[in-house]
Amino acid sequence: MTPTASPTASDTSALGVFDDVVRSESSLRRFLHGLPGVDQVGCEARAAGLATRSIKTTSKAFAIDLAIRMVDLTTLEGQDTPGKVRALASKAIRPDPADPTCPATAAVCVYPDMVATAKQTLGDSGVNVAAVATAFPSGRAAMDIKLADTRDAVEAGADEIDMVIDRGAFLSGRYLQVFEEIAQVKEACGDAHLKVIFETGELQTYDNVRRASWLAMMAGGHFIKTSTGKVQPAATLPVTLIMLEAVRDFREQTGQMVGVKPAGGIKTTKDAIKYLVMVNEICGGDWLDPDWFRFGASTLLNDLLMQRTKMTTGRYSGPDYFTLD
Question: Structural domains in the chain?
Fold first, then answer.
C-alpha cells in the first residue's frame, strides 16, 4: 500500500512550478507570507460543524474498515523491544485473528533500528514499514546525521520515512533551509515515500501550519503529517482542516496529490470518523484511500476493532479482548 506518486511529480519542487519561488530566501518568504491568512474563528467553527455529522450503519461499517486500513500502527518508545515490534507487526497483518475478513493496517511505524525486525515479520503481507528519522522527535541534528539516519532506515527495508522539520529554523523564518532539508531527505529516501512532520503543537499559529504545508509540498513531500505524538496538542481537527485545504489547493495548482496524516491523540472510532467526514468534505473521495490519508495511532486500532465486533456480532467486546499496543 505504498502511496503511488503522481505521474507529474518531480524530484525537487513540484513540477518546476515553484522554481522561481524557491530561488532565494526572500522569494520563498514572499510566497509563504502571501498565502491567504487563516480565519481562526471560521476554521474552528467549520471543524466543529463537520464533527457533528453522523453517518448511517452501513456507511459506519465501511468507515471503520477504511479507518483500519489507514492506520500506521505505531510504537515509538525507548522501551521498544524486538518482541514488541514483532507482536505489533503481526497485529498489523491480522488485527482481529478471530475474523479473517478484518483488513490489515496500512503500515507499522517504528524507530530505524527496529525496521529490519518489522520487515522480517511483515514479509510480503502488503503492510508497509514506516520509520521515523532525521533526529525524531526534535529534528535537532546536523544534516549529515539526518541523511545518514534516513539512509540507514531505507537500507534496512523501510518503505516510508517520517521526517521531522527543524521547527527552530522554521519559526526563525529560515524557510529555504527547511525546504532544502526536506528536498535532501527526499533524495536520500530513494524509492521510499516521505512524510513530513510539522509538530503543529509547536508552530504557534494556523498561518504557520498553512505555510509549513506548502513548504513541504513544494519540496516534494509525499505526505504532510501533523505531529510526532510527543508534543501536546498533537493532531486536532482545525489543524487537519488547514492541511487538507492545502493539499486540495496544491492539487488544483499543480495536478499533484499529496497525502495527509494526523497523528497523536486520535483514540476512538468516533474521532476517526470525524476526520474521514472532513476528508470527504474538504478534499473529496480521492483522498479516502490509505495511499492519501493515514492515522498515526496505537490505541485507535483497538477501539476500531471493538466497534467493528459490535457491528458484526451485536456484542460489545471489552478492551481486554484485543491485545494492548
Answer: 14-312 (3.20.20.70)
Is there a catalytic annotation at residue 119? no
User: Is 162 annotated in the active site?
Assistant: yes
Q: How crowded is residue 54: how many other Cβ atoms within 10 Å of its Cβ?
A: 8
Q: Which of 91, 186, 195, 225 is catalytic?
A: 225
Assign residue 284 a region (left: φ > 0; alpha: ψ between -120 and 50; beta: otherwise). left
pLDDT value at residue 320: 57
Low-confidence ranges of the chain (pLDDT < 70): 1-15, 316-325
AA identity, residue 6: S
Instruction: Give the integer Cα–Cα distance in Å for 49 and 52.
Output: 5
Q: Which is catalytic among the residues 91, 119, 261, 274?
A: 261
Catalytic residue list contains 261? yes
Report the pLDDT value the prediction gives residue 324, as an integer from 0 to 100. 58
pLDDT at 268 (0 to 100): 96
- The per-residue pLDDT for 4 is 43
